[in-house]
Structures are given as structure tokens and as C-alpha cells.
Design brief:
Length: about 120
């Protein structure tokens, strides 16, 4: 991964950050960021990794990806569950041993949980 001016970032600790440039004259850390809560300027390696004298934990740059809010309908059985986009689809796909059909709201960041 290389830090880009076209994307949004936060620090690993959750603090919002703004990338000011990716081409500073620092030989190994050309990325400069601004902490939007504390106003601190930090330099980073091209991949967003931070290392400094005061070892600020959690100041690596992490891309902020879009949040997705949706819902799924789960047909629940004794040993397994199956998700559907709508209640009608869940009802159509149900077997007679279904024990419940519940709507589950989802709120997640794109790519969350994928490694």
C-alpha cells in the first residue's frame, strides 16, 4: 500500500488525520500528516507507517473506507442461518424447519473483517 492524496485517512488509534503531502524532502519519510484533533504534524514512510523518537503508538495512517448501512433477513434453523436481501426472499427460500426469520441491521466499513 502506498499513501495517496486522493484517499482519506485516520490514525490507527482512531484520530482523524489529513495527508498534507506525499513528496516531502525527507529521504525515507515523504508523507506528512496533520492530526486533526491535536494539530500535530507527523512524517510517515510511503506505506503510512509511523516511527518517531517519542514512539507515538497508533499513529500509522489507515485508509478510511466508506461505511455501508444495510440490513439482511436471516432464516434461522437449529444449526445454521441463511441471509437474504429482503423478507420476501427469505420467506421464499425458507424450509418448514425454519425456527425464526429476523431482520439484522448492518453497519460496517468496506473490507471490514477481510484480511
Amino acid at each position: 500500500m502506498t499513501i495517496s492524496m486522493e484517499k482519506k485517512y485516520r490514525y490507527r488509534n482512531g484520530e482523524p488525520a489529513r495527508v498534507l503531502c506525499t513528496d516531502s524532502p525527507h529521504p525515507s519519510r515523504p508523507v506528512v500528516s496533520l492530526g486533526l484533533e491535536d494539530g500535530r504534524l507527523l512524517t510517515h514512510f510511503p506505506n503510512g507507517w509511523f516511527w518517531g523518537w517519542d514512539s507515538l503508538d497508533g499513529h500509522d495512517l489507515i485508509e478510511v473506507k466508506p461505511r455501508i448501512k444495510t440490513e439482511v433477513w436471516l432464516n434461522i434453523y437449529r444449526e445454521v442461518s441463511f441471509g437474504y436481501d429482503t423478507k420476501a426472499l427469505a420467506d421464499a427460500g425458507a424450509s418448514q424447519v425454519r425456527i425464526a426469520c429476523v431482520e439484522v441491521p448492518l453497519d460496517y466499513e468496506e473490507g471490514e473483517g477481510i484480511q
